[in-house]
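Subject: complex prediction, re-run

Hi both,

The earlier run crashed halfway through, so I resubmitted it with identical inputs.
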Amino acid sequence: MAAADQGDRSRRRGGLVPYALLTPGVLWLALFFLVPMFTLFRTALSVKESRFDLEPTFSWRWANFTESISTYSSQFTRSFLYAGAATVLCIAIGYPIAYVIAVRGGRWRNVLLGLVVIPFFTSYLIRTLAWQTVLNDDGPVLSLLDAVNLLGPLDQIGLVQNGRLLATNVAVIGGLTYNFLPFMILPIYVSLEKIDLRLLDAARDLYANGWQGFRRVTLPLTLPGVFAGTLLTFIPAAGDFVNAKFLGGPNQTMIGTGVQDRFLVQLDYPTAAALSFVLMAIITAGVLLYARLLGTEDLI
Amino acid sequence: MEGDEVIQLRGVAKHFGAAVAVHEASFGIRRGEFFSMLGPSGCGKTTTLRMIAGFESPTAGQILLEGVDVSRTPPYRRNVNTVFQQYALFPHMTVAENVAFGLKSRKVGGSEITARVAEMLDVVRMADFAARKPAQLSGGQQQRVALARALVNRPAALLLDEPLAALDLKLRQAMQLELKRIQRDTGGTFVFVTHDQQEALTMSDRVAVMSDGWVEQIGTPEEIYHRPTTAFVAGFIGEANLLSGLAGDGRLLMVRPERIRLERRPPAAPDAGIGGTVQEIIFRGSTTHVSLASTAGPIVANITDGAALGDMRPGAEVWAVWEASAAYPVPATRDADDLDDAEPDDPHRTDATDPSNGELP
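This time it finished cleanly. Structure:
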């Protein structure tokens, strides 16, 4: 009788443990995500009465959204194009790297993974500033291209503009690709590493050569990794302003540049908040659509 | 029949660095037969199967598939298919897509694929599960899908790598019968790898017994059970008493425990026997297991009629008696020229005795 009672009590306690474990996370989210979101939303619907008015007044002003979209339409377009291009490049560069590490890495695996992660030991800003130096008008890349007489042809196909790399689309996309590449490599590596090698034996046994085995077995099984990598790359890249600021010029500003400018330079909080919300909404819609297209809910 | 061999191994060997997984193996597998490779783990049976499938290439020798040397042919150009130990079904594909995989690789037309997949799912009785994913199937069902996925390609030979090892006993026995039925229905050549001697005896037309990379004996289940050619085979297939000093020229005399009677006096003419001391008597239900110590080595007798033992106790002096036809001489060691190639610490020739003896105190 007493034993049964005790068992009952421990089961009830067991039932509460998960909630207890969740509490810090839920509190954290409520305090540092939901509350700020609410404040931001309020700000997005507020009006700045005068230039010197720091605290805007709440007034259900939905026009903030439409106005910010129309004012910053080119920045929005650019953000998504840059982020999209950087993501595609990250997949194109990152997948083979992840594949080589996972499949052919052997005992060098951990060393190679370490090399992928090493850039994180330096600050994001420093790394981007270093790229500024590298791509500088009298930096090593342009000098080398000049020395081998490639500057002219590259200028013609638009990879270099008027002998410059800085302040071009190429520089910003390149910077984004460089900065977010590890976020693509790591999830793809994890999904590749999880693949049971016997499945590839089975594919070969069923008359699939190397390429067919990759296309029909390896690739579909790593799509969840590609999906995760895309989220980790595209979302921060779309909201980034560091690369546009240091590697781009006035014609390469992204939506992050706009948010930063409105918030920190012009102190126009309502427009900045509205821009942030629009960006968030578009990204959320995009991610849902992408997940549907990739059919990932089936794979994860 | 003898000439119609689907697979021929000619002096096939496989070395992994200094380790020898398979010593020169030469044998043929006949069309339509259920051929088993049987042996303890590490005996080279799976390596041999993987060489036939093409996943490993032989260090020496040739593998012929329907008369053509395929030793260097990659697996995707060999007309054999494998059922893997853990099935290796593609988790992102449905049952039907899994089964269709090989046909798609070979660019078979869409309507023919549909028809053949449906037909094969019928054969393995999985038609109702065509739209499921492997994760939604039980072990036995996955097994059937793996079979269908291989057989739908109508391979010259089906290679099975311990396909039943992951199943529990009841299901394993049911699948043994099922496999035999499918083999009869499809008329295919099955090459089956197992470490379970009961399974090999039950299912096979012929069995190759392997040990430490050597093919010890190839024969029908009856041949390898009643007329083993090496002490290892005698000990590995069922229980065996291997008696020394009774057969002459260094050979051992094999007598199966179920062929031994225990009597109070020495045997008369057609029968043979040896005196011994009872060590232990264990009642096992249908038989009573009596172990004796004798000058020829330990002896085990499985007595069906327990009542005949009377009041026999450990320590009693009795005669182990058998009909002359029940005894079969086997060489104590492998042939001398084979021994030269064997590893120095190779234990399989000299002390291969009935493993069940080791269980007795």
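The domain at 68-294 of chain A is CATH 1.10.3720.10 (MetI-like fold).

- K.
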